[in-house]
């Protein structure tokens, strides 16, 4: 019998997931645009930023996830974390060439210093965001659900990145991203909203009914990395490796996606092209969680991967509006549906009372490994990319379709792994 969840749970899930994802979308999809336009960052700079942020997110989630299990206070970590997360976002308002030159008048290259400061502050912001969202919030979702409703919950949770992309795209249409004043306003708005959500959570979130673990903090910290734990949860660990490969495919192109639309294809109206694709993909993703509940992991995962890989193929060969729209729809639908399916699987196989500790392992698969390897693959295939001369005499690289070919190669490998793993499991049963 399906367990019914309260209306307050759904409101809290939607609000915290949406606003958290809006903040992450700005970081994952627009920080690269920010340092590209404001500080003339290279593909290697973007790769370094994504990699450093991924390391920060992983270390944070491991440490705070274990802490949340130890103290059993998910609500405190979520709400308090969102407050300081918002404050850290506000600090980006100071990252402007005129401000940097005023604070560091002796600097020889304000552009290079700006890139370094963005990377450093990105890691600081990631610490607070990962504490609140990746560690505490995701553990709270796991604690508050069970196997009868996690597919539906994960469908909504995984739909939010698409909705947040739509929100961000629509909101950014009112700004000239070539002007530093626009970025100052963007960071001020997002930081303020995140702070407000943290306050709202004090009234919306019901503390998860878990008892603090009796084991020590460092014992909790090491739990998920013990060989004995891996042996007793073999299926979960194998799937976490496959999940990592899936996310490597995504991170191969994602840091360069908007730049590809705008700079390579010349689609200055890419928001209008992407918005319908995002809306349709969001509907598919919400539905796909229920497919997982009814048809199981194998069917739901393979169909999502088929859509993802087909999207890569279409985008690789497409240069005009309609094919790009279709390719983007397939790619986004496959990406978010896959996230919902893998996310539900991981929650289903997470040992009871250990959800906080296992967020660290999840983040290894979802953020660290993909965030280091994926952008590096993208930077490698773009090493000989075309260069353009900017109005101020500086040069910038032009992303090309090779990022989708590289992502497809990894996507095919993920598909083969899912087939092999699920076939073996079925045969064993």
Tell me about this structure.
With 429 residues, the protein is mainly α. The protein has one domain (7-428): MFS general substrate transporter like domains (Growth Hormone, Chain: A, Up-down Bundle), CATH 1.20.1250. It has helices at residues 7-39, 43-71, 74-90, 97-103, 110-144, 150-172, 180-204, 217-223, 227-232, 234-253, 257-264, 270-295, 297-317, 321-349, 355-381, 402-428; strands spanning 387-389, 395-397. The chain has a two-stranded antiparallel sheet. Strand 1 and strand 2 (395-397) form a beta hairpin. Helix 2 (43-71) packs parallel to helix 5 (110-144) and helix 3 runs antiparallel to helix 7 (180-204). The longest helix is centred in the N-terminal third of the chain and has 35 residues, at 110-144. It is globular, with a radius of gyration of 21 Å. The model has no long low-confidence stretch (mean pLDDT 84).
